[in-house]
Design a protein that fits this description.
Blueprint: H1 6-21, H2 25-30, H3 39-52, H4 56-69, H5 74-86, H6 90-103, H7 108-120, H8 124-137, H9 142-154, H10 158-171, H11 176-188, H12 192-205, H13 212-222, H14 226-239, H15 244-256, H16 260-273, H17 278-290, H18 294-307, H19 312-324, H20 328-350, H21 352-355, H22 358-369, H23 373-383, H24 391-404, H25 408-421, H26 428-438, H27 442-455, H28 460-472, H29 476-486, H30 491-503, H31 507-520, H32 525-537, H33 541-553
Helix pairs in contact: 1-5, 3-4, 4-5, 5-6, 6-7, 7-8, 7-9, 8-9, 9-10, 10-11, 11-12, 12-13, 13-14, 13-15, 14-15, 15-16, 16-17, 17-18, 17-19, 18-19, 19-20, 20-31, 22-23, 23-24, 24-25, 25-26, 26-27, 26-28, 27-28, 28-29, 28-30, 29-30, 30-31, 30-32, 32-33
Length: 554
């Protein structure tokens, strides 16, 4: 049952007809003292009759004339909304339903319709409120529970979504669309085995349900039934040839099954819709490699790296493709690049803990700008409550934020306090060292980084910054050692590493570093300009031109 489904529309029309046949309770509420056979009621019955016999324009003309007489006649506005909906004028229909709802705020059908349209428009919170109100008016309404489940799911409230869809199933135990949605929601909560049972039950009853084959394929894939996933994904593509998500699932399943030709065909079809889709290009490159179409594999994989230079697998597959072509030097080069960037990614994962601060940084900076330092410290404590964070960590966090805000005195005050509380706290010495570096105090910076590494010899940021100190001191071998050890992906530091390698005669290492720097610094034009100049100064003309050409193609 999709949003705005025809079945739901028909249900609303039938309910409206029943309402009129019963004498129009809503009309009587607005027309105290008038009989059900009033002229307004008669015109409304006539408009409904025209609509039921297929004369929608006649019905609409009559409704519009009726509303000229009585602009606040809610049942007529409601019928207008239905006629607009039937005509495919959904935005006007939604407006009509909302207008009618203002006049009849407890009309269950209008609450349902308005809720569905809010959901369609992505206004999840509003949709939930309207659908909850609808259920209070019509507790056993299966449609309302169905759409409420959909709204909860889209709002990330899967427990409530499952509760609502179970209520919908209770109200309409034979509704196949509800079976499908129940299966989808179970899969969405990770219960793929139970979800698959409901999806298969729905599919056996109605194989034409929208996206049912895709839903089953996705569940099969999660349950590692790759053959089943490929089978149902193929059926989904057969019924909807332009469904890119189904094609992607089919391609991935075929890759897992090592069905390289079939996967190749699927990836090529995806690329007719999404020309520069990196995942599909990478998949196609792998397929060409496995099919031993080495030149085609190289073309695809090099395109991947032009679009997304940090895709490590592309280097791995390129190495294999070059080896297949007998280009041993190129194969070794790509293998070395892959190894280097894998090591750097290990560093990236090791600092993910620092990224946990990201959600509160903006708010904390605002608090500090408002001179509410205590509130910023408390914000940190609450955010990291229940973790290994210490009281000193909060002062390091606030101290470095002050430094970023160029409030040096307050920054140093907090960093010093952090060290007083906990002399081994991570980061305090490092941020003081970074400040010293910015001020040109190499000796002071070195002392701070040494103090940090004395507490934690494996602290990658301090290792990298020590490498920068050595670079500015002209100690090229030491600089290269420290910067390489840090596994940094920071373009500016990679530039220093590259330059240090050139100074020590390690040209091949410099070239590899230049390529990784180009991958991570591709969106920093000034940094890339300096890299190209560095390569040209050191006689690496071919690499400089190649990196320049790659940048020009991005």
């Amino acid at each position: 049952m999709a949003i705005g489904a025809t079945a739901n529309h028909l249900r609303a029309v039938l309910l409206l007809a029943a309402l009129f046949a019963a004498g129009g309770a809503a009309v009587r509420a607005q027309n105290t003292g008038r009989s059900a056979e009033s002229p307004l009621m008669g015109q409304l019955h006539q408009a409904l009759s025209l609509a039921e016999h297929g004369d929608r324009q006649g019905a609409m003309n009559l409704v519009l004339r009726l509303l000229e007489q009585r602009p606040d006649f809610a049942p007529a506005i409601k019928l207008k909304g239905m006629l607009l909906e039937q005509a495919g004028r959904t935005s006007e229909a939604a407006a009509a339903y909302e207008e009618a709802l203002k006049l009849a705020p407890n009309d269950g059908d209008l609450l349902l319709k308005a809720g569905i349209y809010k959901l369609t428009a992505g206004q999840k919170e509003e949709a939930i409120k309207l659908l909850q109100h609808c259920i209070r008016i019509l507790p056993g309404d299966g449609d309302a529970q169905y759409y409420l489940a959909q709204a909860y799911h889209l709002n990330g409230q899967d427990d409530l979504a499952l509760r609502a869809i179970r209520q919908s199933l209770k109200a309409e135990p034979d509704n196949i669309s509800v079976w499908q949605k129940y299966g989808e929601l179970l899969c969405g909560t990770g219960d793929y085995a139970a979800g698959l049972k409901w999806l298969l039950k729905a599919q056996r009853s109605d194989a034409t349900l929208p996206r049912i084959d895709y839903d089953i394929a996705a569940a099969d894939y999660k349950l590692m039934d790759l053959a089943g996933a490929a089978q149902y994904a193929a059926r989904a593509v057969e019924s909807q040839p332009n469904d890119v998500t189904a094609l992607q699932l089919l391609a991935i399943a075929d890759v897992k099954l090592a069905k390289w030709q079939e996967a190749r065909n699927a990836f090529e079809r995806i690329l007719t819709f999404k020309t520069d889709d990196v995942e599909s290009l990478l998949g196609l490159g792998q397929c060409e490699l496995e099919l031993k179409n080495y030149p085609a594999a190289v073309d695809r994989l090099q395109l991947v790296l032009r679009l997304a230079p940090t895709r490590l697998l592309a280097h791995f597959y390129l190495s294999r493709a070059f080896a297949g072509m007998g280009r041993t030097a190129d194969a070794q080069h790509e293998a070395a690049l892959h190894q280097l960037m894998m090591e750097q990614m290990t560093f990236v994962r090791s600092v993910e803990g620092d990224e946990r601060e990201s959600p509160i940084k903006a708010q904390a900076r605002q608090l500090l700008a408002e001179h509410r330092e205590k509130d910023a410290l408390q914000l940190y404590r609450e955010h990291f409550k229940g973790t290994a964070a210490t009281p000193a960590d909060a002062y390091v966090f606030v101290g470095k934020l002050y430094l970023f805000m160029r409030e040096t005195e307050d920054g140093l005050r907090n960093l010093h306090h952090a060290l007083e509380i906990q002399p081994t706290v991570r980061g305090a010495h490092t941020y003081e060292g970074i400040l010293a570096l910015k001020l040109g105090d190499l000796s002071g910076a070195e002392n701070e980084f040494k103090a940090e590494l004395g507490n934690d010899p494996n602290y990658q940021m301090a290792i990298a910054e020590m490498g920068e100190v050595r670079y500015h001191q002209g100690l090229w071998s030491d600089a290269a050692e420290q910067l390489a050890k840090s596994r940094t992906t920071t373009p500016e530091l990679l530039y220093m590493l590259c330059d240090s390698y050139f100074h020590t005669g390690r040209v091949s290492d410099a070239d590899l570093t230049a390529e990784t720097m180009a991958a991570y610094g591709r969106n920093q034009p000034e940094v890339m300009k300096e890299l190209i100049e560095l390569l040209l100064r050191n006689g690496q003309t071919e690499l400089a031109h190649r990196l320049s050409a790659n940048l020009a193609q991005q």
